[in-house]
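>> received
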Amino acid sequence: MKPLEEFASWSGDDRIFWRAPGHDAMAGLGAARAVEVDGRWRFEAAAAAAAELLDEGEVAFAGFGFADQSGTGAWDRYPSGRLVVPERIVRGPAQGTDHTDDGNPLRVEDGTRASYRDAVKQAADAIDAGELAKVVVAREVEAVGSIDPAVVLSRLSDRFESCAIFGFGRGRSCFVGASPEILADLNDDVVTTYAVAGTAPRGATPADDAAIAERLATDPKEQAEHHYVVEYLRTRLALAGVDLDPTGDTEVRTLPGIHHLATTVTGRITPEPGMALRLAGALHPTPAVGGTPTTFAQQWIAEHEGLDRGWYAGPVGWIDHRGCGSFYVALRSALIGPSGMRLCAGAGIVAGSDPEQELIETDVKFAAVLDVVT
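>> returned
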């Protein structure tokens, strides 16, 4: 069977699906060895565990929460960091599955619109007061009903060929998504990360779409938001010992339903066991999902956002015994449970942000997942 079919049929507690652009899919089934990490040094602990646990030829999958403390409630099976060496890995094409869902479409319950506008206003006030330069404010919606995670993953794979498609299943829960944003990829000695910040919806016609993309590429607010992310990534990678290449050009990256500003940042470093996890830890959270200054933005989020992000906006990916691997930021994602899905999406707030426009941006981001299940 293909990886997604194996994922769908697995009845054990742990099942993982992973498909990155240009690569075969992988299904990680069961947990031969697993380590949970917590606290400020969780990435270092995970890197040390990977170096100790992985034998030649083995791969571990890992996922991390946005915050360094474990979530609660719906997120209680997803600690702030978990590294799993599967009992078995199946590799092959992501497509070709026959999964369908004959149930009723999920019913979306969105009760956070007014509170989100208020939170954006509070964030803008903090920025005007000089407390922050940028902060990402997220909100949550629920889609009520029954849905098979394998169905969602199959549809996301079809719709988002240029994104990493992931599914981390724990018992009756599964965290799924389609992320456009590489946090840290280490292939031999080549390090790659993406700055993805600045967003606009797609147009109704080709002419409208081109005009929207052009406005995004020249909008001062979006350019400022993007600049924070690029400079942060370069600074953090340099501190981690990466020999940086010159910064590439910023481009408009177009996906189904959405445009993003994107800049690729690359460099060189000699791999060693655990290295990809250390690089992910050096970069998380970027200003694209947290804010700047980083510490103050995280504190503001914890005090004002009113949301347990869980693994949303945290790093997810894999690492091998050499220390090479690939971690993406868990965006365009949802936590699937027995009674439906919980989705999170955020927008970067900077000076001049408009609460209504930021709310619309979250709607556009929610649609990436909602459009395949409703």
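>> The chain has a mean pLDDT of 94.
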